[in-house]
Amino acid sequence: MWDPLWLSLQVTACATLIVAVTGVSLGYLLARRDFPGRGLVDAIASAPIVMPPTVLGYYLLVAVGRNSPIGRVWEAVFGSPLVFSWQGAVLAASVASFPFCLRSSRAAIESIDRRYESAGRVMGLKPWRVTAQITLPLARRGILAGVGLAFARALGDFGTTVMVAGNIPGRTQTMPIAVYDAVQAFDYDRAGSLAIVLLAVAVLVLVAVRRLERTVV
Amino acid sequence: MRGRMRPGLVAVLLVGACGTAAGPTPDALTGDAALLVAGASDLRPAFEEIGELFTAETGHEVIFDFGSSGQLAQRIIEGAPVDVYASANVSFIDEVLESGVGDPETKATYAFGRITLWSMAAAWRGWSDLADLVSDPDITFLAIANPEHAPYGVAAKEALLSVGLWEIIEPKLVFGENISDTQRLADTGDADAAIVALSLAIAAGERGDWLLIDEALHEPLEQALVVVTDDPGRVEVATAFAAFVNQPAGREVMVRFGFVLPGENSGTG
């Protein structure tokens, strides 16, 4: 009961952290910088939203599997495969939840009046300080909402994770996979209790995010 | 100021929780975790018992990943850190060995599987054979395992083909991902009946009624296993588990769940 929950929380925390950094960075670039192929990058980055999770998982498995260049480099460096490990589960959850953080933070950054940033520059702030002290703080509610969404999506991921990380009890069996496994074993009581705990955690997190959004003015 | 502190707090919590993943707990994340056995779904009830017996005797913990034999083989070929692979059909063992994974020396047949027509006790309508089922107008769905990658699904298809009923029943078929998923389809009442492994019919006990299907109607379900770990530190325990299945304690459990053992005659139910 608690093993899958603990694993799920760890995997989700890692994925959310990765997604928060990469999603907000790319969201900023897409909102504030013009570069060739911007539209294409935007479309590709959002693709995980429309792709069925299992399809996404399958291609991730192909991309980072043991016989792929990435998989080989990973194994050479860390000594064990990336697939079918908790790190693989983090990768799967990250890719699946990335677009939610990206889109929300991008929209938040885009909606900031550029005059605030110009004012900062006129006052002699270096570009990175404009970003860190004006743009991101002004966009924080949207960014926070995106991070919250990403957390929720990562916590609930089944299809992508099961393809990339498999269903190994205690190692890669996250909450959603444990629910599936319990149903397969006709253990409906366990499936029910796991599902209730998962739901409770998800609701708690969403309520917390909502409160944060309101208090962060 | 308060507003600025909170996102910081969130970040600290996330980093903290993530950091623990790199730490020693859960033991899952370290290399010397329990023996991992990937088994065909029909083995779930029997192997869970055998796993407990093995742990009691050797002190080594065993964890299982149950699924359809084909999907498990796929994962093992892709590099899943499995120690022992027990398939419902020997052909998948050969496929794994051909891909260069596993030790051919350890390949062993441990049982022959039987298929049954199963339904929940309340939904059982006293069918006497497959033809009886197929001609029953109240059958909306019959569940079988996906014959693309589940050996019990292949056997079900072969049996239906042998009695010339495949084409008639095909529009009413629903496919389970593996054999326990197939039983689930009937167990929830969504399918009227299912063709499942005898082991699962026995494990379900009073919950269902079942009819053994003549084994002459399908190719033998020769179930074999192989040691697939390439970690020298784990080979010994993995080999011990593989052998344990075929030793008296293991065989007693297998027989109880309706498996026919290599070298013995079919019990015909």
Instruction: Give the overall silhouette of chain B.
Output: globular
Beta-strand content bin of chain B: 15-25%
Biggest interface and its residues per chain?
A: A-B, 42 and 43 residues
Q: What is the makeup of the main sheet of chain B?
A: 5 strands, mixed
How much helicity do the residues of chain A have?
over 70%
Strand arrangement, major sheet of chain B: 2-1-3-10-4
Describe the fold and architecture.
The complex is a heterodimer of chains A (217) and B (269). By secondary structure, chain A is mainly α. In chain A, 80% of the residues lie in helices and 0% in strands. Chain A is built from 11 helices and no strands. Chain A has helices at residues 2-32, 38-50, 53-64, 69-78, 86-110, 114-122, 127-138, 140-156, 159-165, 175-184, 188-215. Chain A is globular. Chain A starts with a helix and ends with a helix. Chain B is globular and about 60 Å long. With 269 residues, chain B is of the alpha/beta class. In chain B, strands 2-1-3-10-4 form a 5-stranded mixed β-sheet. A 5-stranded mixed β-sheet of chain B has the order 7-6-8-5-9. In chain B, 48% of the residues are buried. Mean pLDDT of chain B is 90; it is low at 24-31. Chain A binds chain B through residues 3, 6-7, 9-11, 13-14, 16-17, 20, 61, 65-66, 71, 80-81, 83-86, 90, 137, 140, 144, 147, 166-172, 181, 183-186, 212, 215-217, and chain B through 2-4, 6-7, 10-11, 13-18, 20-21, 25-29, 31, 33-34, 36, 41, 44, 63-67, 75, 78-81, 178, 180-181, 183-184, 187, 204.
